[in-house]
Write a structure and sequence with these properties.
Layout (H helix, E strand, L loop, with lengths): L3 E9 L3 E6 L2 E6 L2 H6 L8 E9 L8 E5 L2 H10 L7 H7 L4 H9 L3 H5 L6 H11 L20 H4 L1 H10 L5 H14 L6 H10 L7
Parallel strand pairs: 3-5
Antiparallel strand pairs: 1-2, 1-4, 2-3, 4-5
């Protein structure tokens, strides 16, 4: 049984990805909150996921469901233990961070649970009755920080900062502001040389 996978991203769709692992492409379904955490990933990027493997007599075709962490997978297994919530329904329902859902269960917030996709008032009450008092550790789960795409300028900003401070005599705070202003004026800077040009282009005549 597959419990964890690492590989390269081959394709990304609305609710699933195609992951290349050991020269085999695996289709992995992702809840919305997991898909959001992979928003910055591009084809060819490395991806690692904890996998819930689902296959039954009624669902003979294997379904792989991916999560960023083991505790997210653990929550999912609790969530699908509720009557009338199967794995495929649960995938769509988890459209807000797990910590918020767990907190709603513990606080018996049926309205918030009922607002989850595909979860009505009756199912919300079932969730509270089944999982209430068991969600304490899941309420502490923080929403994953989305990966930010780093521009070329940001990648070498530290080196430029070092030169401005150690060789050109600028104070650290001043140098940081100079770099930030340069990137704001021209976010397409590609080299340290271009950044220096932009920094001093932005200074008034007579600056030394």
């Amino acid at each position: 049984m597959i419990g964890y996978m690492e590989g390269r991203l081959l394709k990304k769709e609305a609710d699933r990805i195609l992951l290349l692992a050991n020269q085999v492409g695996y289709e992995v379904m992702l809840p919305p909150f997991v898909m959001e955490s992979l928003e910055a990933k591009k084809v060819g990027d490395h991806v690692s996921l904890y996998i819930y493997y689902h296959q039954t007599d009624r669902q003979p075709k294997p379904v792989l469901i991916g999560f960023d962490t083991g505790i997210e997978k653990d929550f999912f297994q609790h969530f699908i233990s509720v009557e009338a919530i199967g794995p495929l329904k649960a995938i769509k329902a988890l459209n807000i961070p797990i910590g918020e859902i767990a907190d709603a269960i513990e606080s018996e917030d049926a309205a918030k649970l009922g607002s989850l996709k595909g979860i009505g008032k009756r199912t919300a009450q079932k969730i509270i009755a089944t999982l209430g008092g068991k969600m304490g550790r899941f309420t502490l789960i923080q929403a994953p920080v989305r990966e930010k795409e780093i521009s070329p300028a940001e990648q070498f900003a530290d080196k430029v900062l070092e030169v401005l401070v150690s060789q050109l005599g600028h104070k650290t705070a001043e140098a940081k502001q100079m770099i930030a202003d340069a990137i704001k004026r021209n976010p397409d800077i590609q080299t340290p040389e271009e950044m220096f040009d932009e920094i001093y282009r932005g200074k008034k005549p007579g600056f030394s």
